[in-house]
Design brief:
Length: 184
Amino acid sequence: MIVSLFRRSTQNANRIIVDRLFDQIVAAARQPAIYAQWGVPDTPLGRYESLGLHMIVFLRRTRGAGPGVEALAQDVLDEFFKDVDHSIRELGIGDAGVPKRMKKLARMFYGRMGPYWEAIDAGDADALAAALERNIAPDAKEEPEFDARSLAGYTLAAAEALAAQDDASLLSARIAFPEAGAPA
């Protein structure tokens, strides 16, 4: 009985940390400048792209950081996919259609991770902007206002800001993305 009390306490503490980190990532992804200034569509898919981008930057920061941080990152990633599942259901997709859409969205997410990480690792704003444009506004006619270069610059700044944050901050549920649209 006592052992289960301690286990539950540890699980609750981890849940609080995961929820706080995920909430901060969501808040960064929902910054108004991303939509109003840079033209990311304020649609379910556009919001998914922004959240996915911020998750990818977060996961890049946590890779190779050690078992504690990597385990935490996996928990945050699991929360991301639970949130995506919940959002699909809120859009009215029935139980039979959810797995198919989740597979598609997971493929999209992991398909973006490699090119985004590669461009971020190289500090290549042009390659990152090209990847963002391919994914967020593949048809420039539909999204003529999309500013991939500004979003790429912000993403590189976010990756740099997260790299400067120590593991202890992450483990205590503190992460700070830069302000979107702020002068560089």
